[in-house]
Specification:
about 270 residues; alpha+beta; Hypothetical protein af1432; 2 domains; 4 strands; disordered N terminus; HD/PDEase_dom; MJ1020-like; HD_domain; HD/PDEase domain-containing protein
Amino acid sequence: MSDSAGDDAGRRVYHPDADHHFPDAKLNQVLEFVQTDEEIQTYLEAQNVNAVDRMQYNDHGAKHIEIVRNRALCLYDLLKAGNVDFNGARQQGLEEEDESVIIALAATLHDIGHVVHRDEHAYYSIPLAADVLDRVLPEFYGVAETVRMKGEVLHAILCHHRTETPLTTEAGVIRVADALDMERGRSRIPYEHGGRGINTLSSQAISHVTLQEGDSSPVMVEIAMTNAAGVYQVDNLLKAKLQGSGLEDQIRIVAVNTNENREQLVERIEL
C-alpha cells in the first residue's frame, strides 16, 4: 500500500499499482470491470436519491461507495500485514486472491437497496446485488466458484448493519469500513439544505480519518475532530459497528479534538 504524501499517507486510497500484502491481480481486473459497468454505476447514482434528496440524510451514493471500498481494501491490507486470518474465502475452498474480491464487491454493492428505501436497506440490497453478481462473477469465475463467491459477498452485504453478526473476517471488514466514512464532506448536502440532525452535525465535526499500522494492534484508526459533536460518530456509530465485527482486538481507534481555539469538552478518546 502506498505511503506517499497527501491522502495516501494515511492509507486512505487503494492503488492497484502499489505493493500489497496480498495477491491483487484478480482484484484489479474486477475493479476495472466494476468501475466502467453501466448498471453498477447507475445504481450508485440512483441509490442516493432516497437517502439524500428525499430524506436529507448523509451521502450513500457513488462517493460514499468509493470511500468505503478504498478504506475496506486499505483495512484489509493492514490486517493481512498483521497476519490476521480471513476465513470467508478459505472455508469455501476459494483462493487467497478471492478475499479482496469479496471485500471489493461487497463494498461496491452494500447500499444499493437504498433505491427501494433507506429503512431496512441491507435486506433490499440482497436480491438486487444477487442479480448484479449473477452477471459479473461469471466473467471471472466458473460455476462452482461463482456460487461460493456470491454467497460470501451477499453475507458481507447483509452484515454491514448491526442487526446481523458477521461470520467472516471479510464481512467484518465491510462493517467497519462502512462506519469509517464519517468526514464532514459526507454530510455537506444535507447540511447546506438545513439538515441539523445528529448524523449531519456529528459528521460535520470530523475533519480527517486515517488508517495506519498500529503498535499494539495491526490497525490504528486516527480520527481528527473539531468539536465534541464528533464523539457521536466515534462512539455511537464506529464503536457500535466495531463491536461484533470480529475485529475488536485487531483495530485500535483514537479520536483527537484538534480545535485549539475553543475550550475543549473532549480532547481525546481511545477505544
